[in-house]
Amino acid sequence: MKWRIASVAFLLSVVGTGFTWLTLQRPLLALVEVARHCAVTGSPEAAVLARTIGSLPFLLLLDLVLLTVLAYGVLDFMVGRPLRRTEVVVEQLGRLELDVSVPERPGPLLSRIQRALSRMAAALQEEQDTTRRQVEALRAANARLTQAQTELVSAERLATVGRLAAGVAHEVGNPLAGILGYLSLAGARVKDPEVQEYLGRIDHEVQRIDRIVRGLLEIGRPERERQGPVEVGHVVETCVQLVKVGRDFSRVELVLELSPGLLVRADSGPLSQIVINLLLNAVQAMGGKGCVRLSTCSEAGEVLLVVEDTGPGIPEEVMPRLFEPFFTTKEPGQGTGLGLAVSLHLAEGMGGRLVAENVPGGGARFSVRLPAI
């Protein structure tokens, strides 16, 4: 930029000096004739005129240099510096760095350009903010759409399981009752210990099938209309007293942090089933050893029941499918994958919600929210 301005300044000075020489050419020629005449006549002014004429080339060169410096200074002040600042601003805009600073004194020739750049930067900044807000809104809408799609898929699966349960419950339930009855009779008549062991195993497996059918019936069962005031703390204490005598809870510490007098509009039966399912899942996740904390509190017109364990937590790849029917991470024969699906269905049937998350310090947390009274 500076070399270009210098070349333009030199060209302007050459043109200016040339015009000056053309303008003064006739007077100078006349002065030369006078000097020549004075030299012929022997006038004393002849020497002065000769020195003056001899210094003309030096004076013309000096004028050329002075004009070049003056033109360079003027062009650099009026054009060069504003153009360099404008170039910096344009490069910032090209990198989408919209927080640009336009000089307060851009110069008389480029003031309009600088103001136009400032307006363009402000418009681009506003457009970028609008685009960012639209992108955030689209992301939120996409997240809601994905969640709604997941809920619809889960609801469709639950409906399918419900229809399946309604179709097979009668056909499967009655034969199972008959099998259990015959097993009881056989066990009473057979005295062989080995046969007794085989009959016990058969009875255990048949009862497991019966539990699976009952779980299917819970999913397919319509929501209960008879719901009344239920004290959450009393239900939790009853469930804890029921399960803690079991062999699986012998090395488990149960910690209760229950706020008294919290009433919800629910059914004590389904609520008890939810609490027992969550307790059993927590104990199985910890491998039968650890601490389970149950707490209740009131929050924004709802009662919050939280069950936390000190197990390994829920893997990230398992979390999206946690409440799917028949999905389980347990060993074959150890679980049916219906406990959490049934619990979610029961919680939603009472107008509540059931969510799962990992505790930052380790372990899993299941939160049941029910409408308070």
UniProtKB/TrEMBL annotation:
The chain crosses the membrane at residues 56-75. InterPro entries: HAMP_dom (IPR003660), HATPase_C_sf (IPR036890), HATPase_dom (IPR003594), His_kinase_dom (IPR005467), HisK_dim/P_dom (IPR003661), HisK_dim/P_sf (IPR036097), Sig_transdc_His_kin-like_C (IPR004358). It catalyses: ATP + protein L-histidine = ADP + protein N-phospho-L-histidine. Residues 110-158 form a coiled coil. The keyword Transferase applies. It comes from Archangium lansingense. One of its GO terms (molecular function) is ATP binding. Keywords: ATP-binding, Coiled coil, Kinase, Membrane, Nucleotide-binding, Phosphoprotein, Transferase, Transmembrane, Transmembrane helix, Two-component regulatory system. It is an enzyme of class 2 (transferase). It comes from the Bacteria. Residues 167-373 form the Histidine kinase domain. This is histidine kinase. Residues 77-129 form the HAMP domain. Its EC number is 2.7.13.3. It is found in: Membrane. The keyword Nucleotide-binding applies.
